[in-house]
Amino acid sequence: MGKLFDALEKARQDHRVQEDEVPVHTVKTGEIPANDRQILPKTVHPSMVTLLKPHSLEAEQFRILKNNILFPEKGDPPRSIMITSPSPSEGKSFVAANLAVSIAKSIDEYVLLMDCDLRSPTLHTLFSFPEGPGLSDHLARAMPLPEMLKKTFINKLTLLPAGSIPQNPSELLSSEQMRTLLYEVKSRYRDRYVIIDTPPPNLTSETNAIARVVDGIVIVVRYGKTTRKQVENLIDIYGRKKILGVIKNFSKKPVLSRYPYSHYGNTS
Amino acid sequence: MLQPQKPIKPEEILEIIVRRRWLIVLSLCFFLTLGVGLTLKAPKSYQASTLILVQQQSVPSEYVRSVVTSSINQRINTISQQILSRSNLEKIIDQFGLYADRPDMYLEDKILEMRKRVNVKIEQARHGTESFSIRFSGSDPQRVMRIANTLASYFMDENLKVREAQAVGTSEFLDFELEKTRQRLEELEKKLSEYRAQHLGGLPDELETNLRTLDRLQQQMVDKHVILREAKTSLALVESRINEIETRARQPIQEGSGTPETGMRDVVTENQEKLRQARQEYDRLLTVYTPRHPDVKRLAKTIENLEQLVAKENDPDAENTDLPLKPLVPPPEDPRLKRLKSERDQLKGEIRSLTMALDDIEKKMVTYQKRVEETPRREMELQSLNRDYANIRDIYNSLLNRKLEAELSVNMEKKQKGEQFRILDSAKLPEKPVSPDVKKYFFLSMAAGLGLAAGIIFLLEFFDSSLRRDEQIEEELKLSILATIPELQTSNATTRKWVEVAAFALCSLYAAAFFAFFAVLYVKGLDRTLTAIKTMLHI
Fold first, then answer.
1. Backbone angles phi, psi at B79, to 5 degrees
2. Is B478 helix (H, G, I), strand (E, B) or coil?
3. Which candidate, A26, B45, B289, B343, has a CA 20 to 30 Å from the CA of B30?
């Protein structure tokens, strides 16, 4: 508890310092603050709701998600979080990016967003970075990591892009180097969160290797597409303990609901 | 982990319907279009129906029993067969110029099709009274009505003809039978009377008379025999007298006196008897007592007295025998003999006539005897004859009764007082086609549209295990929901959504329009709606 208290104290101090630099929290209107707008490039992907529409319903949902993850009922919050979903195009990268932004924006913790989907990397396009060297290059050719880390327009958010598409993504991600990297990233900064975007585990095998190292797993479920069986399979593979919870993506408003999403406040 | 199947909630159904709205609307659109198309395309068929009541005979059946006994069903079947017969249908086809527009059609096919269009149906709705309807369906309402009426009238005519023919036929048959039976009856009558004439007197009903006659003859014979015997005795007496007189006239009279005396001496008198008994008593007493016993003495005295009496009696006897002999002695006189002889002759004549009468009686008795003996045989013969006669007569009588009834029934049929058909409702001009059945098409297409949609939705939902509801995640998978992110509202998605809404609205509008059109067709009727539309288009 002492440690945590210290960490919180430090975070508060950092926060105060950063507030002066980037006054994100002071914005009350639905409009993007003028400062941010200046920072944001035009090519930011429209799905970055936490950036583009920080007061929209979706952004609010990501805030709820962030709170749910950072303030668990018991125990420490997970420092490294793997975002996965059974099948492709269920919104892993979207959730990972927005969650990372959300965490980075609101509290004084640093966030490292890793694009581990070496097969079809998308995170860099969301942040409108050009294709360049990334994780695969580091793992395959032992290129130094700091060169690859991209500073985003949100101060505390750092992106590790996937890099060039390798021929053996599975081997690379299951390698010892990868494990070391993850350990290193986790342990170097105590106040840093690592959000890992992964390829779909139903189709690829490398996700398992990552899953063993991370603290928590968040499963993205696409409304009306992901089946119960797929989720059950994931539970079987990763174990119930590590799974933090489920994110319902592409959710539709219930037909008879008068207060949309009012019941999500109860989720823990 | 396993959880019981939860009952589906209404809002979930609503959600499913909203989610699958496209399926429902498209299915409805398709089937309503199909239904309306079929309704408009299907050939219109009109049906005219004539309701015919079967009226019971107006004369009560206790008075006149109907000869026509076949059940109405049978008769209707028979008549409908006649109506549907080839010749009749040909006649109707010719008369109404049916199938004139189809010269390439074979006559057999025309008749086959006609048969399908004529429908004779027994209506069970009216209790007790029976009725049936003749229906005819076709494309031209006017013609349909006329043909239905023609068929009905033909049906009525045929029925009357059938009934009359049946009644007349029965009557004729009975006539023939009656004549035949009458001939047989007459034959038997003749035979019977001949037999009676032949065996007159020996008939069983004369048995009593015969027996009585026989008895009387027997009595007569007995009487005659008695008389005969008496006559014979008298004759013998007379002859013996005659002989006696004749012999006496020839011989002296003395010879004759001895015989009566000896005869007289044989007679034992009372006293002699008493004497004999007394002597026997005396001998008996002597065996018991001495002669000095008073009883013995008294008996000896009695015997003595009796001996005296007996001696006295014997004396006058000698005097008496002489007296009757004296008158016999005188010589025979002629007149007496003559009288006796005439008496003898008379007796002889009597005997002869009696014998003859007896012979006669005997002969008569033999005859009667024979008759009596033969009576059982005759009786049997006569009985069999009578039986035959009675049988034939019964048959004749019953035939005669039936014949009379049949004549009554024929008259009843002729005057149409018997069971007959009456047209309750004659065929009216059909205004509404029976086919296509708009109602049926309407409900069928609605049911098919909704049913197909429901079936497909059910199958989809049944095999769909994708996660939608929070309960599925929270309760079945036991995972907490960290966040629920709605679909992102990009401008692209919004446009798509609007396009979808517009298309859906169009489809719904299409379905609603067809539904409304169908409903109008159903409520207003096919013909009226179509004519209304036509007039509107013309204007």
1. -70, -35
2. coil
3. B45
Most confident of A25-39, A191-205, B75-89, B208-222: B208-222
d(CA B156, CA B52): 9
Task: Verify whether the Cβ–Cβ distance A248 to B485 is below 8 Å.
Answer: yes
Full DSSP string of B274-288: HHHHHHHHHHHHHHH
Indicate yes or no: CB of B470 within 8 angstroms of CB of A240: no
Contacts of A47 in chain B (CB under 8 A): 488, 490
C-alpha B18/C-alpha B461 separation (Å) is 13
> Which tens digits make up the pLDDT trace of B455-485?
999 999 888 888 887 778 888 888 888 888 8
Tell me how long chain B is. 539
Closest residue in chain B to residue A98, using alpha carbons only: B485
Question: Do strands B118-123 and B130-138 pair parallel, antiparallel, or not at all (unpaired)?
Answer: antiparallel
CATH of domain A57-69+77-249: 3.40.50.300
- Residues in B closer than 8 angstroms to A221, CB to CB, are 467, 473
pLDDT tens-place string over residues B35-64: 889 888 888 888 888 888 877 666 666 776
Residue ranges of domains in chain A: 57-69+77-249
Q: How many CB atoms lie within 10 A of CB B426?
A: 15
In this structure, are residues A36 and A24 in contact, taking their beta carbons and an 8 Å threshold? Answer: yes
What's the whole-number mean pLDDT along residues B139-163?
82
Q: Give the residue from chain B lying closest to A99, CA to CA.
A: B483
Query: CB of A210 within 8 A of CB of A182?
Result: yes
pLDDT band at A39 (very low <50, low <70, confident <90, very high): low
Nearest to A256 among B14, B478, B482 (CB): B14
pTM for this predicted structure: 0.55
